[in-house]
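FORM 7B - TANDEM STRUCTURE REPORT

SECTION 1: FIRST PROTEIN
SEQUENCE AND TOKENS:
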Amino acid sequence: MAADEHLRQWLAEGMTGCQFAKLIAQEKDRIVRATFAGLAPEEDVSRVFDAGARARLPAIAIFTGIRTEQALAEQLGILARGARWTLTEERPEGLTTNDVMVGMEWRIRDGIASSPMGLAPFATMPVTRRAP
């Protein structure tokens, strides 16, 4: 089974705890998705999100080659260099941790942004955001 279909089925089973993601993932044609075997140029990732915005559908970019937190940080750095991506370090009040929490926004167009949900198979991810 292809990685994008595996992830779609995992979402459809409600593994993230997000009912919206579960409902959307029930049908294959309700998600724009692309798989990247390694680190991807910002323009390629933004193209996936642009296609989703044009179709008025959620978009999923799957990075099958990212196996470490270091590689994830590198991919986030690539995205952050693009004009449409904003990454911030988040520090929720009352939470004490050595983990680095990252906020992410992708600008759809002036005045409208989306906050992508990140999933990864790392122990530092919240349980409901650990991908298969």
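SECTION 2: SECOND PROTEIN
SEQUENCE AND TOKENS:
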Amino acid sequence: MRCEGWRRTGGAFTLGQVEWKQCEKEAIVMLKVKQGKEETLPACLECWNECKEKKIEILGAEPLIVEG
């Protein structure tokens, strides 16, 4: 399952237009967050850590089960 994190590049204080790109890594958890509204989304470790760094309210994290 692909991570649902999004990253912004360009725009204020940098050259180029604002561009949003979805993370291409595999998700490791279902992350429940609150940013105005509550959402549960798949996230990779890098995006999960970015949420913590940006002080996004994390309500829960449930590991994804990898079969194989």
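SECTION 3: OBSERVATIONS ON SECOND PROTEIN
The longest helix spans residues 45-53.
The chain is about 15% helix and 45% strand.

SECTION 4: SIGNATURE
Preparer initials: ____
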